[in-house]
Amino acid sequence: MKEKFFIILNQARKVFGIYPLVLLSSFIMALITIIHITIFNFSKDDSLKFLLVKLILVAGLGISLNFALKLLAQRVQQSKMIEYLGILILIGFYFILPKNEVDFNEFYAFILIPIYILSHLLVAFIAFTKKENLEFSFWQFNKNLFVNFFLTLVFVSVLIIGTELAILAIDNLFEIHFDSDVYWKIFLFILIFGSTFIFLSFCESGLSSIEKEDEYPIILQFFTQYILIPLLFLYVVILYVYLAKIILTWELPRGWVSYLILAYSSVGILALLLVHPLKNKTEKAWVRVFGKLFYYTLIPLLILLFVAIFTRILAYSFTEPRYYVLLLAIWLSTVVLYFVFIKNATIKFIPISLFIFGLFALVFPYFNAISVAKRSQKNALEQILKDNKLLVNGKIDFDKTITDSLVYEISSKFDFLNSRGQSAFLLSFLDDKHQVEFKNAESNYWPIESKFKNVQQISNKNYPANFLQLTSKQPYYEIANYQYAILQQYPEDKNININQDSIQIKTLQNSALYMVLNNKDTLNLKPLAIKLFDNYPNNPDVLSIEGQLANYKIKVIFGTIEKTNVDANRIDFWFSNVVYLIDDTNKK
């Protein structure tokens, strides 16, 4: 037993000695995540919370980046210099992140997600960029990483379940009452740091052990032949039937089909990579047939993919997601052409080309995702305003009659551009009064839709138009006969303690509004709020609804309320400047 303990200890020392920066990044990420959870509920220092979030993001990138650079260092035998480069990259990445939480919007998702994907792609090929690096070693390396990843999932799952159950047993058997947060903290520490350590333990001494030749795992052949390929067959049948439907009905494809084509392509490429060593074995004819047919089956689907994405772009202009889908379509076309026409094609082309395309999307001047999306939306907004004659002397005329769907379109483009730092461009369309309002708006949001005074409803045979908006005509409210008033500028969940009771306001991301008393009694306010639109476009002077929550009489007064018909069965709404009036009838 003692001997086994020392073997484990020596293995742990070896892992720490080979991958110090990877493990340090993982430990920092785990530790700061736990600290963030600990202080989140009681600390009012939002700047400290956001600083911790930024450090978590930097440390998370450091795990994959430092691992990739370690592999490169082992290949070129320049360990220290390359590891220092990783530290410099992480410092630069920290300063890419915004200084304030208010500026940390969805825009950064379209930067951060590609960066993390690129860092993982780097792991796949960074040690195999030279021609003398053998194709089979490259495959062995990535296959072993793939296997190690799934082994890590199994080990970590067992470790988390076992540890949590042990703590639960101690809690119940010995009546040592742990804080409920301890379960989350242990879960996160094992998930982040524990999984990193276990994965690196499987990687042993690094590059030499990961790329070493071994037997082709039967489980991979089984997984590919009996799971991935049947899935591919299902995907391709659905897609080809849908393609036939488009040709017969002559209708434009739905935007969602793009994601199914990308899924089919990804699963197919993964399957080809997993069985790559079998393609030259005579007894594995199915591999050769599958390898030849797959790329040809992609050709009609790529045409469908281009039609689908250009349909969306021409209708709604570029956004970052549409840009990335188009870029993936171009990359897939490149991969298909490469493997169809190049005789001695190498599988290294797949991760390397994807990395180059991704890097192009992030950093190439003028044509990167951010620049293209901003330029496209600016041009589209300007064209909409001109085509609908909403500009008078270059400024938006908010008194003109306008359809609700057009208001929705203008509002979405305003929000998009404002969140991407294009406030100067937007201000050029506003008069002096609205410029002041725009500059003073909180949380980087200015509700332009509420400024249009004559919004016309448009309906179709299926359901009412997309967007309706009501604004209170009365600047003051009658609050007599109510004991408590709670003000809320924008929708958010809120807890209120009155006497011995707890009242929760729930908004569920603007799609609902209800109040819960002591986690038991519930008052659903959404149907009452929707009824305010019954006489649209006319509305009462005061936009108010009333209801009863056990012994509490509730009145909600809206400054502005907006309704969006997502589809025939779903209605979302948004509101601002809300007053909740509460009266405890037991006290009367």
* Beta strands, count: 13
Mean pLDDT: 85
Supply the number of structural domains: 4
Low-pLDDT ranges: 459-465
Helix and strand composition category: alpha+beta
Contiguous helical run count: 18
Separation of the first and last Cα atoms: 74 Å
Strand content bin: 5-15%
Fraction of residues in H or I helices: 55-70%
Radius of gyration: 29 Å
Tell the overall outline.
globular
Sheet bearing the most strands, described? 5 strands, antiparallel
Overview of the structural elements:
The chain is α+β, with helices and mostly antiparallel strands. The protein folds into four domains: 2-107 and 132-210, no CATH class; 218-363, no CATH class; 371-456, no CATH class; 467-587, no CATH class. Helices cover 58% and strands 13% of the residues. It has helices at 2-18, 20-40, 46-76, 79-96, 109-125, 135-173, 181-202, 207-210, 218-249, 257-274, 285-316, 320-341, 349-363, 369-387, 404-419, 423-427, 432-440, 526-530; strands at residues 391-392, 395-396, 401-403, 454-456, 467-471, 484-488, 494-498, 501-506, 514-517, 521-524, 543-549, 552-567, 570-584. The strands form four sheets. Strands 5, 6, 11, 12 and 13 form a five-stranded antiparallel sheet that branches. A four-stranded antiparallel sheet has the order 7-8-9-10. A hairpin with a 2-residue loop joins strand 1 and strand 2. The model is unreliable at 459-465 (pLDDT under 50).
